[in-house]
Amino acid sequence: MNKYRHYYSFNRVLLLILDVTLIAFAFKISNLIRYGSLDLDHQYNVFFVMFALVWWIVSGFSNFVIRVDGLFSIDKKVANLLNVFILHALILATCIVVFNLEQLSRLLLLYTYLSTALLIGVSRMITQMVYRYFTNSGMAHTRYVIVGTGTAARALHQTMTNNDEIGSKFMGFFDDDVDVNSPYNSQVRGNIEDLKEYCLQHSIDEIYYTKPLNDKSQIDELTQFAEDNFVYLRIVPDFSAIVQKDVNMYFYHNIPMISVRNEPLELASNRVVKRIFDVVFSLTVILLVFPILFPIIALAIKLESKGPVFFKQLRPGKKNRLFVCYKFRTMRVNNNTELQATKNDPRITKVGAFMRKTNLDELPQFFNVLLGDMSVVGPRPNLVSQLDQYSKVISKYKVRHFVTPGITGYAQVSGYRGETKEVHLMEKRVEYDVMYMAKWSFMMDMKIIFLTVWNMIKGEKNAY
């Protein structure tokens, strides 16, 4: 809302200045614990500037981190604060390597991160409590009324009531056509004709108009009244007839737009976080794990059956763009590569069965991640033949291709992997893939990776 824009800008700057101050304090305390002195050496002064600058940049990506109002829930704020710390650590580690700062004390870095996390976390709790105290005081209340009693009016009332931390006080509904069975009847103060007098008598600050927008004369009349009496008129369009789920609404310059799917990865900042993690994680696996396992796996494949070590196949990726997907070969060379593997499939070698059971056959796909064709976590890239088959019978099948496919995914760790003999099994996969897109968070990716590793250790009955 425009009336809070300047407050949010001030709030943003204030919290970032507070963060940098706390980071400086954390450096001093950490240096005292590690070296017994509050005075930082030159290299640590330089590192402090780098540490604070990276935090300023990274935290600026997230509204959760630089806001203390009640428009976002506590669990989202905590989760996103953790995400920002992880992203900050990844970027800072890269800076340490690039600027050759390996001589920095690892113990000091640990102390600094722990104390920074503690100080910033506690500061957010304190500022949240101060904010709540202020907004719940009488002087902070903004009085508002809602025109209409329909779906949009009820949704607005419930949302503002549940998030009454911006100091707003609801004064009542106004409508000409009130449902006699409505549970809000006791809160209706009159019809729209009574609205003007009520606003003047009770010093109303805001009017929320939730009725259909086809009565231009009524809107113009209320607009003129609001301007003449220093009342804010806010129009809340009712899209319930055409939109039946959570949506994202944003502005392109001054043009309002609605995205009919709630997809966190539509935000550039989230895509940046996910891509940075993909690059760092895949490079770690390629440099540390792949050189150790590759010779062993390659030798085992060659000893059991003739053919190449790697298996390459075209798979549909983001927006159905085909890419070459790499795997370790788990089958004997055959001409039925578009045929899905089945239980006790005679094409699968003994080495291949073990690799499928432990997901080791997917190891080369980290090169696909590095190339940008895949992500560490995302919907699994199915066969081209499956795309043609299931997109005709499963309505949301193509929706899963709005995001980059992954080495592992939410459906796989939820028990939906392996052969899909029946359509309903693929429908469940698609359901979990779409659910992943709607609920994505960095911590959700971490959970899926952990469950994937756990399943690799214990083995999966559907992995064949």
Brief overview:
The protein has 464 residues and is an alpha/beta fold.
- Give helix and strand order, one letter per element, not per position: HHHHEHEEHEHEEEHEEHHEHEHHH
Mean pLDDT, all residues: 82
The overall number of domains is: 3
The main β sheet shows up as: 5 strands, parallel
* Discrete helix count: 14
Which structural class do the helices and strands define?
alpha/beta
What's the alpha carbon Rg, rounded to whole Å? Answer: 28 Å
Distance N to C terminus:
54 Å
Question: How many strand segments?
Answer: 11
Percentage of residues in DSSP E strands: 5-15%
Unreliable runs, pLDDT <50, ≥5 residues? 1-8, 63-71
Global outline? flat
Could you list some keywords that capture this structure?
two-stranded antiparallel ribbon; disordered N terminus; 12% strand; alpha/beta; 464 residues; Rossmann fold; 5-stranded parallel sheet
Description:
Its EC number is 2.7.8.31. With 464 residues, this protein is an alpha/beta fold. It has 3 domains: 2-135, no CATH class; 140-242, NAD(P)-binding Rossmann-like Domain (Rossmann fold); 268-458, no CATH class. The protein contains 14 helices and 11 strands. The chain has helices at 5-35, 42-60, 74-98, 106-135, 151-162, 192-201, 216-228, 268-304, 350-358, 365-371, 384-390, 410-413, 423-439, 442-458, and strands at 142-147, 168-174, 188-190, 206-209, 232-235, 248-252, 255-259, 310-316, 322-328, 375-377, 406-408. The strands form 4 sheets. It has a 5-stranded parallel sheet, sandwiched between helices. The chain has a two-stranded antiparallel ribbon with strand order 6-7. β8 (310-316) and β9 form a beta hairpin. It is flat and about 90 Å long.
